[in-house]
Amino acid sequence: MRTMILALTPVNLGDATDWRNCVAAARAVAEPHGASVGAVLVGGTAEDAQAALMAGADKIWLLSDAALAEQIDPAQFAALFADALALPDLSGFRLALLPVGGVGDAIAASLAAKLNAALLGFCISVRLTETGVTAERPAYGGRACLQVTANGPCLASMRVAETEKGAETGTVETLILNTDLPPAPPISRRDSGVQNASLDGAKIVVSGGRGIGGPEGFAQLADLAAVLGGALAGSLPSVDAGWVPVARQVGQSGKFVTPHVYVAVGISGTPQHMAGISLHTRIVAINKEQDADIFRFAEIGLVGEWQQVIPALLEKLTEKNECMRKAGS
Q: What CATH number did the domain enclosing 209 receive?
């Protein structure tokens, strides 16, 4: 029987997670071994099924349950996936991938406990062996790489640089389950009072690196992000220095962001940092080093000291916003 690599993903995770990349990652693992790719999509439509085929799936299961809460609840998703994986066509899997990010991690942890499966976490690479799986995963904030091996069913997440196009043909099956779902926890919303938007789903991200030199510079970047209606972020060195919270780290060992525009200030552009930025994002780079690698990825690049550029940019944007406000009043 041909080995199948599974992609388990809700399609309603929003801009915070690209579920198609989960399918593409499964394809990247499967291809060298001649394995097939199965995608189990919770809440998916016929249009989503076509997108999964394009991302590299050979067979798709559209999974739904009438009791599923409208809000994102990892425990409910894990219960649904556990029931689905008990079906004859999906049981006995060797490797299942989940979306990269906090929600995917939470689902994977709960699902691993239910299935007694090995939890590999976020991996740089995954390959099949004769008896199981061998994977490489980052450690110590990306400064080291661990090799892990496991026999039996494994759960992991992995990001691929580019989405491979599939054959656009395959089989699609709709599954309506009556799973005994755990109750979704009550959620209340309130204004946090924080000016900066969350990185998850942000359309504009203003990010600083080692070149900012201290927390005072990040205060100005936060002002710029607020004026632009975007989110503040930082690279690993700036997080290590304590200039920006770890929750706002972008990169291989941090968050993966998919904004329309990413403003990189004082960031050199290492592969580890660029791994956290969508390939479809337009990058604006400000750096005093004209040979910085970040300029190779930027659509707009400005060589100069950020201490001169950012205040001038803030002044112009503030003036423009004030003019627009007056014109609209």
A: 3.40.50.1220
- How big is the chain, counted in residues? 329
- CA dist., res. 325 & res. 329, Å (int): 6
Do residue 165 and residue 231 come from a single domain?
no
Q: pLDDT for 266-289, tens place per residue?
A: 999 998 899 888 877 899 999 999
Element housing 120 (H / E): strand 118-123
Q: What share of the chain is helix, strand, coil (3-state, %, to 5)?
A: 35, 25, 40
> Tokens at residue 168, please?
């656009």
Nearest 5 degrees, angle CA 217-CA 218-CA 222?
Answer: 125
Percent of the chain with pLDDT over 90: 48
DSSP single-letter state for residue 60 = E
DSSP 8-state secondary structure symbol assigned to residue 212: G
Q: What is the CATH classification number for the domain harbouring 49?
A: 3.40.50.620
Query: What is the C-alpha separation between 235 and 242, in angstroms, rounded?
Result: 11
pLDDT single digits (tens) 4-31 = 999 999 887 654 457 888 999 999 999 9
- DSSP for 251-316, written as a single string: STTSB-B--SEEEEES----HHHHTTB-TT-EEEEEES-TT-THHHH-SEEEES-HHHHHHHHHHH
CA 206 – CA 195 distance, rounded (Å): 13
Q: How many CB atoms lie within 10 A of CB 284?
A: 17
Residues 100-119, mean pLDDT to the nearest whole number: 91
Say which residues have a Cβ less than 8 Å from residue 314's Cβ, sequence separation at least 6: 220, 223, 224, 227
Range of the domain at 143: 4-176
Which candidate, 246, 242, 294, 302, places its Cα nearest to that of 271?
Answer: 294
For the cut 50, the answer to whether the pLDDT of residue 167 exceeds it is: yes
